[in-house]
Amino acid sequence: MKIFQTHLQLPQKRRGFHLITSEILRALPEISQINTGICQVFIQHTSASLTINENADPTVRLDFEMWFNKAVRENDPDYQHDYEGADDMPAHLKSSLLGASVTIPITNGRPALGTWQGIYLCEHRDYGGSRKLVVTAWGE
């Protein structure tokens, strides 16, 4: 069994959904040493999230942002946690809806993502800052 782990800090990105698959693979090239295994990517934040979805058409990422902004509105007078700005509590809710990690099988030294799949950083804040990820891969 081989186990590899790295910490990756992504530069600040604008609010929205961003493909980060290539950054993850550059950060942990040891994945190529695993024939059969698992890769987990975990984000160490509560106002951004991760998901896997369409990697080809950028309008999918725009539609994700549009839908989440309609589903979880800012400036809701019922929010109690509002002292960090109008986007903060909605960011926490969006993050919980999508989740803090993704898990991908590794096959023949590569993530076994589908043809049209990529890993998204989902930035839910207007000014979220840089984001820290922990990338762990293990297998034979």
UniProtKB/TrEMBL annotation:
It comes from the Bacteria. SUPFAM superfamilies: YjbQ-like (SSF111038). Belongs to the UPF0047 family. This is Secondary thiamine-phosphate synthase enzyme YjbQ.
